[in-house]
Amino acid sequence: MRFYLILFFCFSIFFIGCTEDKRKIPAGIIPEHDMAELITDIHIVDGSLYNIPQIPDSLAKHGLGLYLAVFKVHNTDTAEFKKSLKFYSTRPDILSEIYAGVNKRLDKKLDSLKKIKPKINKDSVKKAILKHKADSLQKVKPNIDSLQKVKAKAKIDSLKKASLKKKPHSSKKSKHKNKNALSK
């Protein structure tokens, strides 16, 4: 009889242990919804750091500050995040739900960026056209100035040539006059 009693208690404890609510989150663990938001922001920071040129210490210079800013926005720290991630890693069903929420959030942000992108491109094209016009005007202005300088220099040169042509004629005339005066 004693054997059956021990067997009964073992099965009872086993069933009670198996039916424990695995959804119950212990203290010090970030709730599922908040964890999904936090992981979303962390993935966005990861993506932005991927686009930064890989200069030595660039991750230490830019990355750490960005991650700390994300943790500050979500009122948490790295220790609590690591503890929560470790907890959810032991419960893959909950973690997969969290990542489903992360995917939904990222898709929603991507869709909103796709809606805004044509307007941004349109604005950037307008700015580029205006900049190009301004640049082309700046390029033309020195050319106009240099053209005016060339014309002025050519005019000065032509005046010098004209004055040089007149001087020999005037000297010939004076010689001719001197000869005529001497011959008279």
From TrEMBL:
Give the InterPro entries listed for this entry. Answer: DUF4296
Q: Where is this region: Disordered?
A: 157-184
DUF4296 domain: which residues? 26-110
Q: Where is the composition biased (Basic residues)?
A: 162-184
Name this protein carries in UniProt: DUF4296 domain-containing protein
Q: Which organism is it from?
A: Mucilaginibacter paludis DSM 18603
Taxonomy-wise, where does this protein's organism fall, top ranks first?
Answer: Bacteria, Pseudomonadati, Bacteroidota, Sphingobacteriia, Sphingobacteriales
